[in-house]
Design a protein that fits this description.
By secondary structure, the chain is mostly helical. It is built from 5 helices and no strands.
Length: about 90
């Protein structure tokens, strides 16, 4: 969409603060780059165009959590810092 309208993501969302806009643009870029790399990697081993499309669609669905119940989605990516404290001091 940014390419189509020749605007940054922050401009499309009317983000005025310069630092916030930069962070938002960076986040959108990183998300897109990671997803694109995963999509490209997903098509390895596919022999036909149809197989490539199926693999890329499955990868896209995974990224977008299509058809996934929120209860089944991973709840957290990083360790809970409070869990570490419970191991050190089980009473508190």
């Amino acid at each position: 969409m940014s390419k189509e309208f020749h605007k940054t993501p922050a401009e499309l969302y009317f983000i005025q603060d310069e630092i916030t806009a930069w962070q938002f643009n960076r986040a959108v870029y990183l998300f897109g780059a990671e997803m694109e790399a995963d999509l490209d990697a997903s098509e390895k081993g596919a022999k036909t165009d149809a197989a490539i499309r199926r693999k890329r669609q499955a990868c896209f669905d995974k990224w977008m959590r299509v058809g996934m119940d929120p209860e089944e989605a991973p709840q957290r990516k990083f360790a809970d810092p409070a869990a570490r404290m419970k191991k050190v001091n089980p009473d508190g």
